[in-house]
Amino acid sequence: MPLISEPFRSVSIFLSYSREDAALQDVLVKQLSPLRRQGIITQWYDCDISAGSEWKQITQTYLSTSDIIVLLISPDFIASEYCYSVDQRALAIREQTLGPEYPQTAFVLNNLAELYGAQNRHAEAEPLYQRALAIREQTLGPEHPQVAQSLNGLAHLYGVQGKQAEAKSLYQRALAIYKRTLGLDHPDAAIITKNYMSLLQRMQKEE
Predict the structure, then answer these.
(1) 83-95 core/surface letters (b: 16 or more CB in 10 A; e: else)
(2) Residue 71 and residue 63: Cα distance in Å, rounded?
(3) pLDDT tens digits for 158-174?
(4) What are the backbone angles phi and psi of residue 70, rounded to the nearest 5°?
(5) Which of 109, 110, 134, 199 is deepest in the core (most CB within 10 A)?
(6) Whole-model pTM above 0.90?
(7) Is residue 101 a contact partner of residue 137, using CB atoms and an 8 Å limit?
């Protein structure tokens, strides 16, 4: 009996950026064009809105249905109340449509935590990082690279807050995950290693 393969479905991507970063957005769109031509992804951003359309309703629709939400984080993005609201709405939508314990919910939680951290709103960022970490550990397993990414974000936050012992432990755990999975030569592992070494240097200076 022949196997029946699942029909291929392209991944839909919602792109969010500050108007001041339009040039960077154009670069990203060009970089994604090979995947778009192959039908691997579809993308949407506000340039796809025709004149006279209800842009808020259209944006909400694509925000609700996209598989991946990409945020071009920059000082202008952080300063934009509208861009900031996109992540909050994305989180509410993911929780409502997918549930509070879904990996995509963790992805948005992590994004929002990074945004809060960049705004020095550390007290608000910490529980979001912790929740994203718990979801990923539960749904993906404690050895998944996305768990390491959440550990890296939380470790960076702890380092900024002066909780250096906690940050060190989280960095070590994140690197151990990459060592056992994708390897320490992976680009993401290199970023975590750099963050970890920076923390150790700060700790040595303070001794």
Answers:
(1) bbebbebbbebbb
(2) 12
(3) 999 999 999 999 999 99
(4) -105, 125
(5) 109
(6) no
(7) no
